[in-house]
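Morning run. Coffee first, then this:
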Amino acid sequence: MTTTIRSAAPADAALILQFIRELATFEKAPEAVRATVEDLLRDGFGSQPRFESFIAEVDGSSAGFALFFYNYSTWEGCTGIHLEDLYVSPWARGKGVGRALIEAVATRAAERRCTRLDLAVLHWNPAREVYQKLGFRALSDWVSYRLEGDALADLAHSSTKP
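And here it is:
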């Protein structure tokens, strides 16, 4: 078994979307995916990419992906990476594919002098054990919040413009 990790190319946009849909199904929210191939092409491969992605292949067959973007730590004065999605197809799990994808993202972080690699995982996801074995630590002092949809639009429209 040979695992290869490569940077995603525009021709991979449909494959990335397929993996996103499979991940959403795994996370029990298949109806939540609104992204399109066009969105991925624009935001991942356009003139100002907002994310990067790696594709994992096992013996030439697509086995998973990692999608990440850069953030910034004001306290450290350095860039970091947020690993938004990591997904390995069921047939390829337990073969080190997820670890290989995380290693590729960590390598990218080192190449870009990023000081940290962040990710969020659902509390019930068994991959939490893998992340802990790799050295990730849960940030129990932090609580994630999200503003989206109508609440975001309402807040944006209620503010006074500078």
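The chain has one domain: 3-158. Good start to the day.
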